[in-house]
Every structure is written in C-alpha cells, then in structure tokens.
Specification:
The chain is α/β, with parallel strands linked by helices. It has two domains: 19-372, Glycosidases (TIM Barrel, Alpha-Beta Barrel), CATH 3.20.20.80; 382-475, Immunoglobulin-like, CATH 2.60.40. It is built from twelve helices and 19 strands. Residues 1-16 and 485-494 have low confidence and may be disordered. It has a six-stranded parallel β-sheet. A six-stranded antiparallel β-sheet has the order 12-13-14-19-16-17, with helices on one face.
C-alpha cells in the first residue's frame, strides 16, 4: 500500500509538465508579456473561494472551463474573509491552528489519497499546479484584507513582523510554483484603514519574496525581480505603492455600486497619466448576476447582466488597462446547494457550475481576441478621435489607437463622429466588431476627411454595443478578432 501511494504521489506532484509561462512588464511599462516576449492580455476570472470550497475534481472542472473560454489568470484567496474558520475546506481541513496566523496547520506528506497527509496548504498547491498545466496563472491572495485592516473583527496579523513571517511561510510553500503565480496583496481593504496597515503589507511582500529567493531576513529590502506582485482594493494601488519596488502593476476595482459606473474609465486613465507608469487593471468590476448596489437581500435594484460586464470591460481596456478581470456572482463564492456550502448572500439562484456558462463569460474572450488581433503594446487611449462625446451615462464613448489602427467602443449603437485628423491613414478600412458574438463585418474602404459619421448596425438601445475598428490598409490586418502572427494566445476564429 505504501508503494502504491508513493507511485501516486510521484505522478501527481513530480512528473507533471507545467506549461504556463511567467509574465513580465513590457518595455514601455504599460502592458504585460510572457517571458519569451509574447503579448499577454490579462483575462482574469474571479474565483475567490476556489481553494476553500472546491475539491480536486470540482477544481479541475472549473479550471478547464475557464481555460477553454480563453481566461489566463484565476484570482483566488488562500485565507478568505467569510467562513474561513467556520467552515473547513472540501476535505475537512482548516488553514490555521486555533485561528492563529502564526500557526499554519500543516502535516507531513501531501498524498491526496491520505487524509492525514493532505492538508489545506497541500490543496492550495495542488490547484495552483493544476492551473499551470492548463496555461493558467493564479492570481493568489495570501489573505483577504480583513486579516490586516479589519472592519468586522480584531486584526489577525498584528504587526509587520507577523506580516513578514506569514508572507515567508506562504512564499516558501509555493516557491517552486512562483513562475505561475501573480501575488496579489490586499483584498477589498484600503491599506491605510489601519495605522500600520501599509507597513504590514510591505512586510508581507518582503517575506514572500525573501522565501522565493531562499532568504529569511526582515531587513526591509528584497530582490523583487523574482516575484510579480500587485495590490487589490477599491482604489488603485498607485495611491499608496506607486514608487514601491515590490509593485509590478496596479489594480483597482470599479466594483458593484451601480450600472454605467464611470470609474471603469476614470480610474484607468488616472493611472495611464501617471509619471513613471506601471500597467493597470480593473480587477473587480460589476459581477454578472450580482445584485446592483450590493442588494444582498431581495435584489430590488435588479442584477448586473452580460452587457454590464462587457461595458465596464471595454471602457477599462480602451482607457488603458493591461487586460480585464471578469466575475460572476455564484462563481466567485463557488455556491452549491446544501451544507457546508450555503450561499454567502441571499440572492444567489444558480449553483457555480451552472453559472460558468453565462453569456458574459463567453464574451470576455472576444475582447481579448480583438485587442490581440492588432499591435498590442502600441495601444493607447485616444479621445482625440472623437469629434464629440456629450454626457451619456450608458452610451459613453471610449477610443484607443495604436500602430496602424483605431478603435471606438459604442455601448448603445448610437451614431459616432470621428475626427479624421487622428486616423491612421488617408484611406482607411472600416469594420463593425460585435462584442456579443466576436464576429466582424467589413463596412468599406473610405477616404479620411473632415468629421466623419458612422452609424452602427441596429437601433440605438442599451446593450446594442459595437466596436468601430479603423485600419490603415497598408498594414494588411486580418479581420478584427482574428489571430495575428507572433501571439501565443488562443483565438476563436470566425
């Protein structure tokens, strides 16, 4: 029997082939690429409860579903905010002894078939490794922000020394998978909500990095070139950490207050205009199937739908983000019926595995495909393309341009006026790209002259969204959304 377990252990943990490549910041400090220089459009999915609620079979099902849909980053948290100590994981394990951050509950061995050996931390490691085999990078939060800057409990991490030690522990446990992890500190909490909160997060970043580098010395310095890190909360991490060397990119969230949330483009553009910029990302937008304005009880304000998910995604990306993260309300909490998996809110009506195939989840890949079908790192916000953009909460126009192309997102199918002075060529090819289907229709080759009017297909209405793609003919681009040379990403060709 022991020989059988040793063979199984060797197969599962030692002889797998990991495919996902580490990522880095592009030379213009705006976007991301793989270690071999291929464009990397962050397409994230929100799976906060992945480690806590799913068993191995369920986790594989989830990860494969997301990989097939073109996602490449999975955001999940190790020490979750809700029920982290009330409900064990799928195998009856808790992460800490007596809820003590200084006492991780670990056991000898990591054989999945041995309940005594396979602990909470082994399960986290196993999922990260499974994700890597599917070309998925895990955006791993060591703990939710509540553990450092609490709003509902006493702080668990009391001082920077404990922050360093916990960071060192989790970094050491996963250092062999570091190339397949994006370390995301924070989690819904502003780092300065507590007097020493900023110092604790900095200490945790140092602890993680020292562990990865084989060091253990809390001296306020580390070689951060070996880790890729950001910080997640409502406001951009640039507010506190823009000059910190541990931060490789900024994240923020437009969150769930309302439809037509202008923060989706305002926050992106704020970071774009910073001196010494870093890539930026909307890492928590309005979740599909989530009650509008956090109405957890009766959803009297309605629910966010696939258009809401698309609208904030295109608003953010066309305003300068390095990609986008999608979320779905039943999926982030991995809700399924019955104990020990009750809904974390009263307004969840689908189980997580049913909600994996909501329309918005399919449609996110069309945005990724569109961006990667044109020169990637030259893209920049370009509102000068718009001859007019009157106030319109739902139909706000956003525009971007790059080497030989321009794009305008039109949320409501209304006419748009373009200033030809800012187009890529005197003669241009025009396309209508459908964010709902990923299909494109050639509109014609026209002369760029004066103020030009374009009228999208269909009526003016909420959700009749289109992207006007304008190309320089000499670039000989393929249809928008079709694969370009020198990209490794998966595409759905139409």
């Amino acid at each position: 029997m022991k020989i059988k377990y040793l063979i199984l252990f060797f197969i599962i943990f030692s002889s797998v082939t990991i495919h996902a490549q580490p990522i880095k910041v592009t030379s213009n400090n705006r976007y991301l690429e793989t270690s071999d220089g291929q464009a990397f459009f962050w397409l994230g999915d929100t799976a906060w409860e992945l480690f806590h609620r799913l068993d191995r079979e369920e986790a594989q099902f989830y990860l494969r579903n997301r990989a097939k849909k073109g996602f490449n980053v999975i955001q999940a948290v190790v020490l979750y905010e809700l029920e982290a100590f009330e409900t064990p994981n799928a195998y009856g394990d808790f992460p800490l002894l007596d809820e003590d951050i200084t006492r991780p509950d670990t056991t000898e061995g990591k054989n999945p078939d041995d309940a005594q050996a396979y602990d909470y931390w082994d399960h986290v490691e196993w999922i990260v490794q499974e994700a890597a085999e599917l070309d998925l990078i895990v955006g791993l939060l060591p703990c939710w922000g509540e553990y450092v800057t609490p709003r509902f409990r006493e702080p668990d991490i009391l001082n920077p020394e404990q922050g360093y030690n916990y960071g060192w522990f989790i970094g050491n446990r996963n250092k062999h998978l570091n190339d397949h992890i994006i370390w995301i500190l924070g989690g819904d909490r502003l780092p300065d909500e507590r007097v020493n909160g900023v110092d604790i997060w900095r200490a945790m970043a140092e602890g993680i990095t020292d562990a990865v580098n084989g060091e253990n010395d809390f001296d306020h310095t580390a070689n951060y070139k070996t880790t890729f890190m950001t910080y997640h909360c409502y406001r951009s991490s640039s507010v506190w950490f823009h000059e910190d060397s541990f931060i490789d990119m900024h994240t923020w969230g437009s969150y769930h207050e309302k439809r037509d949330n202008e923060r989706a483009y305002f926050e992106a553009y704020k970071d774009w205009t910073l001196a010494n910029p870093k890539p930026t990302l909307n890492s928590e937008p309005a979740y599909e199937l989530l009650p509008i304005n956090y109405d957890w009880r009766d959803a009297s304000n309605g629910y966010f739908d696939d258009f809401d998910a698309r609208q904030v995604a295109y608003w953010s990306v066309f305003s300068g983000t390095a990609g986008h993260t999608y979320g779905c309300h039943p999926v982030w909490q991995m809700y399924k019926k019955g104990n020990p998996h009750p809904p974390l809110t009263d307004t969840v009506h689908k189980e997580w595995h049913e909600a994996l195939d909501e329309d918005g989840a399919f449609q996110m890949q069309y945005l990724k495909n569109l961006i990667l079908s044109r020169p990637f790192s030259s893209r920049m916000p370009n509102e000068k393309l718009l001859a007019e953009n009157p106030y319109d909460p739902t139909g706000r126009l956003v525009a971007c341009s790059g080497d030989g192309y321009a794009m305008i997102y039109i949320p409501t199918g209304k006419k748009v006026l373009i200033d030809s002075e800012h187009l890529p060529s005197d003669q241009v090819n025009c396309w209508w790209y459908n964010p709902r289907t990923g299909e494109s229709e050639f509109s014609g080759k026209v002369t760029a002259q004066g103020i030009m009017s374009f009228d999208p297909p269909g009526d003016t209405a909420r959700g009749n969204d289109w992207v006007l793609v304008i190309d320089a003919p000499e670039k000989d681009f393929k249809k928008p959304g079709r694969k370009r040379r020198n990209t490794h990403d998966l595409f759905i060709d139409k």
